[in-house]
Design brief:
With about 160 residues, the protein is an alpha/beta fold. The chain has a single domain, classed as Glutaredoxin, CATH 3.40.30. It is about 30% helix and about 25% strand. A five-stranded mixed β-sheet has the order 5-4-3-8-9. It has a two-stranded antiparallel sheet with strand order 1-2. A hairpin with a 5-residue loop joins strand 1 and strand 2. The radius of gyration is 14 Å and the shape is globular. The two termini are about 30 Å apart. The model has no long low-confidence stretch (mean pLDDT about 95).
Length: about 160
């Protein structure tokens, strides 16, 4: 069961690719788009993060920051970020705490891998309240970027 729109977003403290701790409270006063993805360097995940990269100016104009969260280690995420020219923080939930708190835990992924992030997106408004949430039916499905943009437009 996904987190409900209108509820307070769970706080998180995760390390980015520079091994700097980033928390939800760092984004107070801004809308935050949290892009959950199963694994760096996989096709749909790369497309998801690159789409977010390509739309960053739109998100910035909506007073929104973007972060990506996966269970990959910061070092792997750093290589993924560099290879794809991603300019927003990618956060490592290596210990899988945040994906559980946001109900984004994917039990079975692919090739026998277990315990990764589901593919999904959560929009947290400037006051820390969830305003939009989506979890894709399968890890191979892409998030609905049009619905995400529409949710942000409502926060203007």
């Amino acid at each position: 069961m996904a987190l409900a729109v209108g509820t307070k977003a769970p706080d998180f403290k995760l390390f980015n690719t520079d091994k700097k701790e980033v928390s939800l409270s760092d984004f107070a006063g801004k809308n935050l788009i949290i892009q959950f993805f199963p694994a760096a360097f996989t096709g749909v995940c790369t497309a998801q993060m690159c789409s977010s990269r390509d739309e960053l100016s739109f998100y910035n104009n909506m007073n929104a920051a973007v972060v990506g969260i996966s269970v990959d280690a910061p070092f792997s995420l750093g290589a993924f970020k560099e290879k794809n020219g991603i300019t927003f923080d990618l956060l490592s939930d290596f210990n899988k705490k945040t994906i559980h708190e946001y109900d984004m835990y994917q039990v079975n992924f692919a090739a026998g891998m277990k315990g990764v992030a589901k593919r999904g997106v959560v929009v947290v408004d400037k006051d820390g309240v969830i305003q939009y949430t989506e979890t894709t039916p399968t890890p191979g499905d892409q998030v609905n970027f049009d619905a995400l943009k529409a949710a942000l437009e409502k926060l203007k």
